[in-house]
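Problem 3 from the worked examples.
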Amino acid sequence: MNNMRNKANNFSIRLVVARTLFCIQVIGLALCSPYSLADVLPPVIFNAPLSVCPGDIVGLQGENFGDAPVVTLMGNGRDSTSLNKLEVMNTFGTGWVSFKIPATATGALTVQVSNGAATSAPIVLNGARAYHLDALQIVPRGPFRLFGRNLLLPGFTPVVTVDGLPAVVDTRASNEHMLMVTAPRGVRAGGKAAISVDNGNGTGPALLDREIEVAAGRGDPFALGVGWGAAFSAIAAKVVLAASDARLASKVVCNGLVDDTPAIQAAIDLVAAGGGVLQLPPGTCRLAGSLKLKSRVVLQGAGKNRTVIRYEANYPLWGRGLDLAGVRNLTLINTRGRIESPLLQNSTRVFFQKLKFVLNGGIQMFLTNNNNFVILDTDFIQPKNPDDSGPYTLGGSGGLVFFGNTTTFANGSPTFARVHDAYIAHNRFTRDARDNQNSTGVIHSLAMDFAHRIAITNNTFDVLGGPIVNKVRNDGETLLTEGGGGKRTENLGTVVSATSTTLSDPGNKIDVAPFEGGAFPENYGVAVVGGKGAGQSRRVTAYSQGTLTVDKPWDVVPDTSSRYATFVWGLEKSLIKGNTLNQNPRGIWLYQTAIREVDIVGNTINEGGGIFLRSAQILKRRLFVPIVGVRIANNSITNTTKQWRSYISVMFVRTDEQDFGIGTIGVEVRNNTLQANSPNLTMPQQEPGRAEGFINRMHAEGPTQALSKNQTRLLGTIFQNNKCFNCEIGVIVRDGAKGTVQDGNAVIAAPR
């Protein structure tokens, strides 16, 4: 075993003092500015880790740290009455410092940075962070899940309040990233409520960045597990029997021969008049037409395997603009091949429960732009088909709970693009490759382009007829977010002027509504990537005449030296945790898209690639996508059958020479285990570093390969306490990676 420790690499600095002028110049960073020794600017911290534990190496990025920054822990995590100087592991320029938190620290971990003449504002490293709920609406005494960071820490009890009233937290069903909460009885329905969480360690409460709608209601008659399920209480109490209700001129027979479409539709219309449950009989229902779903109607079968709807026409179930509607306890089977599948769009408080969809080559289901949407215990089956059609798209849906489902598909991708405020958990996604190893179509097991505020936890991704062995196709990611393919969202430029909350570049026309419908995405972002203020990122809230307005003031106002990039965040404020991935060519890929505040923790990948983060610069396409605030921790990756490589790769890819900016900042790679092939595979078509092990480097593509490599493209990546079995090279740190820290990593060499 070989322990590796590298406290400082790629450090380059020049200090010039001339009477009263003080100037620091850093190669690769535009951080040089003259100022008076008597009036040194205080350090300003732009980026810090999302979660920190005692014993962790921590990196901070910002400005004005000086050439010998001092980091202090306030009160050793116990109080704020004393300051404790910490061991500095690594510095780079005047805007990066890394240090180690004592293993004995407890409570609030709050630090400050001093440049010798001034001190930064304190920054909390293990305070609660509230990101999102599993719904966009709550009810008094109703359940909700709260997602974020540092929510439940050992030895402390969290407190959640709704409009100042204490909620009940079930700590037994909660963890660091999720709290199970019951809303307080006294919260007022009919308005919106502020939600806060305090993890109890002395760091204080954190406020959810938006208020949540509160509705009246009590109960959960269909066991949906969300507060707004209470709104179905009155509906569930009124059941209409489709086979026998006297008010129906034609009864539903479901004998497999008669077209039941007219009778079922008439029954839906009857129930819609007052709201209720339409109960279909057991048997086989034949649909020669389409059923139009209605608000305040739940279409219910006698059981997933007892009521079977065999459909022959487009859109067997069709609904738009619904409120309070559901389908449960039945199976739908396509009998006509290439036709449109069930569709549900632009609706709210809707659910699918205990269903089976056998699509048989039909066009994928469009279940898009729905808010407060629950899909439970449902099976989706889409066999191989000539159109390469996948099973479904849930694009643009919010308040989505996708729980306990199975998806078996041969083509396309289960798609969660632009999903937000979502919980995707305890599902099984199975790629059917039994006769489709060499598909010409694009296949991913879960596509999540431009998603934000989502939690993807405890799912299983596997392959029928696996492993996938097609090494010719540039394809096969299990979990993927990518920057939009042919429809890009990015732009870039140089700042002409800025204020505390704006950035202006009048000569650059920015498309702030890149998706259909002309809407301004909530997760539209801007980042300063070079020059003054580099490392700051914000959400864009308005755009007019070349001026972007941001969601909160700049810590340091950009100037004409500042270079910026705009984009829709490819993944933001999200969690990928506890998933098991088997036998796909590629594992978890955050690929050529802007990423911010993402945890990839506790996942297991077996015989199916690894974890890949790729930031990029393509100036001719006006593309620069940064990655900030990503933690990759406690994952296990095993590839031993010589099909695919084991890797955790953090990479910046450039296609041109200009040093436009920093691509990744402070990515943390901790406590992961890799089991590599012996001997290691190179496999150039699987691009993340083209090696096995932990990788941190810039990669030049096209005509730029021979150009300057002394650029700062990846800043302050931390590799701590990782293990690599059979890796010929454990950690690869190369061109463009500056301020990298390696500590406590262990490599067990491959036998020779």
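Problem 4, a separate protein:
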Amino acid sequence: MKVEDTNESRLIAAGVDLAHSPEGGLSEENGDPNERHFNTDHLRTNLKNRTVSSGFVTLTAQGAKFALTIASTYVLSRLLEIPDFGLLAMVTTIMGLLRVFKDAGLSSATVQRDDITHAQVSNLFWINVGVAGLLALIMAASAPAIAWFYREPKLVGITLWLSVTFLISGSTVQHQALLRRQMRFKAMAVIEVGSMTVSLIVGVLMAWLGCGYWALVGMNLALEASGFALTWWVSRWRPQRPRRGSGTWSLLNFGINMTAGSAVYIFSRGADTMLIGWRYGADATGLYSRALALLMRPLDQLMAPVGAVFIPTLSRLQNDPERYRRAFLRLYEAMALVSFGFSGIFFALSRPITLWLLGPKWEAAAVIFKAFALAALYFPIGTAVVWAVVSQGRGKEFLRINLITSVITISAFVAGLPFGPVGVAFAFSIAGLLVSVPVTFYLAGRRGSVRTRDLWAGFFRHLPLWAVVAGVTALARARVADFSPFIQLLLCGPIGLAAGVGTILAIKPQREVAAHLVGAVRGMLAARRAAGTT
């Protein structure tokens, strides 16, 4: 008992109240000690303030994770060689195809379901662990085949070590799903930032000691191991033994559709790296994967936690169509405003961003990064549209969207492959913007309170912002093209931001969205101050 009290005190001191905070739900004194992990009735009474407070925590955590990502990119790109990143990308791409089955869509089922029991989540936990163990064995057994496919014997050892991460991460799926269900985002922030910090320390230390690509392997192992330890320490939930007759099948049915849709999407998104590695080798794969990571890693770090906040929020509103529509469209238009502005800056400053973050030896990656900057136009809002489908429990629609868009994506990769990594990147971005987005908007808007016309109205309402920001930033950079990459960023970045702010202030719909954003930020700060005084 004393050990538990000590651990709880430490977490409360770190800002993670386990049982008695608003995040924690019901305390053990109020009934079944497991109930607080599953009951969400208390969340509905003050959903707006909880969402705002969760947003503040999420933004703070993402700021820390973004700083760690920049530090990792800056240091490791100089300590390691281009092929080192290519070797890891070859293996992690194939791992990504299998990793989606580790979750089996069951975390989404836990978050989205209105009512769920301890027995059901325990059954889902054991299913996740069993699937993860099987995937670890499959990955380890596939090591020789992966090395043969890429014609690179070094991949055998890399694959064997990384296969262990399946079993580690599979043991945290339901714990983290319950934390998201209860909107315990302080706890999630502790886990994510803590594990990422440990991973960075291990990777930089190994790279500094001359371990080469093994430093990247060590980073991945450290990330999963520390994430496992922190998750089980922060979450007080412990699974029971599997039980029959607990009503798990309906959750599995939803999970099957989610898994199938995610598997198709992950395969399509990993096909580019596999094709480039197979045809052009580790050097080209290294350039491509680093350019992709420069854009997609920050986007993923932003989108994943925002989704973790809003999917539970939207799920709680699915029986109130008008509130649901209003909440979603505010989120969607805010994401459009932010992503269009920053996409314009990234597009115009692709070369100095690449050279400053990665170093001079990575110059060939700059044009690849420029191509991916176009994808930043639609990736965030397309992801938000998929959240709407998931939060409404439309598993079959989720699968249909991913099947169609995946065919489009893979076709684009094949069309661009003869032109090298640059051709693949441009083909992906253009096909996504011109084909995948219309398909996604159409399928997602056929049902529910958010219609296709709402999605297009928000898209075109904010599109001029991208053109203004990209154009002004490019003109500014042309004047200082002979300066160092850092000076170019220092001078041109603020000019692009100023152009964006001016455009927002001049156009009424954008001004209204910005006002909502400012109000949300003020609400976050007020909630934070109120929490500090209680």
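Solution to problem 4. The two ends are 27 Å apart (CA to CA). DSSP finds 23 helices and no strands in the chain.
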